[in-house]
Amino acid sequence: IAAALDTWARGPEALPPPREPRTPVLPVEGERNVLITSALPYVNNVPHLGNIIGCVLSADTFARYCRGRGWNTLFVCGTDEYGTATETRALQEGLSPRELCDRYHQVHADVYAWFQISFDHFGRTTTPQQTRIAQDIFQRLQARGFVLQDTLEQLRCGACGRYLADRFVEGTCPNCGFAEARGDQCDQCGKLINAVELQNPQCKLCRGVPVVTPTQHLFLDLPKLEGRLEAWLERTWATGEWTPNARHITRSWLRDGLRPRCITRDLTWGTPVPLDGFRDKV
Known about the structure:
- The strands form 3 sheets. This protein has a 4-stranded antiparallel beta sheet.
- Helix 3 crosses helix 4.
- Helices cover 35% and strands 19% of the residues.
- The protein has a domain at 17-126: 3-Layer(aba) Sandwich (Rossmann fold).
- The model has no long low-confidence stretch (mean pLDDT 90).
- The chain is α+β, with helices and mostly antiparallel strands.
- Strand 6 and strand 7 (181-182) form a beta hairpin.
- 20% of the residues are buried.
- Its EC number is 6.1.1.10.
- Keywords: Aminoacyl-tRNA synthetase, ATP-binding, Cytoplasm, Ligase, Nucleotide-binding, Protein biosynthesis.
- InterPro entries: aa-tRNA-synth_I_CS (IPR001412), Met-tRNA_ligase_1 (IPR023458), Methionyl/Leucyl_tRNA_Synth (IPR015413), MetRS_core (IPR033911), MetRS_Zn (IPR029038), Rossmann-like_a/b/a_fold (IPR014729).
- It comes from Onychorhynchus coronatus (Royal flycatcher).
- It holds the Pfam family tRNA-synt_1g.
């Protein structure tokens, strides 16, 4: 505070010269390099003030502060474009998922530009570079034995010839009896639901009756990492700046034991799985 008051009293001439912007922004040896990311906004709607305030504005403020300090700063964001929500919205609007993403990515970019959010790069998750990076991460995990196979039971629509992701299913909530519950959550009682638990399920695409069918999926073998993770956490908790809430949540996960995490989906709109036997999944 004393240093801030002193600088304020001496006026603008006491400030260091502004940093000349570089393109692209890359780390510089011997300098303070700051990478700032904000949560990726989902691309199937028009952003509103809540998205601006809760997602990008605080990161933008911090990025401006860092640049004002003369630090080498890179502020990045982009639209999150893969997944079930995009497929669902594309069907509603009569577009392909790619056409939908192209439309809403431009809407998002225009809105943030109007608010003068100072991204150094505003990208998207559907680029060839993103695919190469994601598949490289997968292949390195696979080579090191951190990926395993297991069977899941999912609803499959015979008329559509596809497994149904949770948002493609509606039915009666097993908890409260609401007749229009989604395959992931009931909007009436708020309970999270596994789609196979729905009573009287219906395919949202054709209104046919799906059947519970086993299908193979790939899982991240988190239990294999548990010992090393606990040792790393003990070191970083002693030296890092973890918030009490972050420590509490992490401890609760470890206390209950880590479980394998499914990392594949029966969709067409996503990063292709580069493994024989799973190339129909993303």
